[in-house]
Amino acid sequence: MRRALIALSLLALAACAPPVPLPAGISAADVALFRGAVERAGCTVATDAQAGKVEQATGFAPDKLRSLTEHLARRGELVQAAPGGFRLSTGSCAAA
């Protein structure tokens, strides 16, 4: 189910021009926490186990995680990885 949420989030992202405002209910601290969780999960989230690590580390509900992945993808910080997955392309993950 987590992979399906990730896939839906990535499919919902076409082309959006920066700057991208934060979605309602998402703070800069939420974005930082999510980025850190993805980095600790290995920069790529392509399996249920990896998604579970991010979910557990953040404590965010699936809707909030979906909003965060959509937001960061619109900003160009997430790129599609394996089918249904994504890779963080900023911070310490940029060189990974």
How is the secondary structure organized here?
Layout: H1 2-11, H2 28-40, E1 44-45, H3 48-58, H4 62-74, E2 78-80, E3 86-88
Antiparallel strand pairs: 1-3, 2-3
Molecular structure report:
Residues 1-17 form the signal peptide. This is ATP synthase subunit E. Keywords: Hydrolase, Signal. It is an enzyme of class 3 (hydrolase). There is one protein chain. The protein is mainly alpha-helical and 96 residues long. The chain has one domain: Arc Repressor Mutant, subunit A (Orthogonal Bundle), CATH 1.10.10. The chain contains four helices and three strands, in the order ααβααββ. The protein has helices at 2-11, 28-40, 48-58, 62-74, and strands at 44-45, 78-80, 86-88. It has a three-stranded antiparallel sheet. Helix 1 packs parallel to helix 4 (62-74) and helix 2 (28-40) packs across helix 3. It is globular, with a radius of gyration of 12 Å.
Q: Portion of residues in helices?
A: 40-55%
Number of strands: 3
CATH architecture: Orthogonal Bundle
Strand content: 5-15%
- CATH structural fold name: Arc Repressor Mutant, subunit A
List low-pLDDT spans.
13-17
Give the rounded overall mean pLDDT.
85
Morphology call = globular
**Helix-strand sequence:** HHEHHEE
Spatial order of strands in the largest sheet: 1-3-2
At the first level of CATH, the class is Mainly Alpha
Provide a count of the helices: 4
Distance between the termini: 27 Å
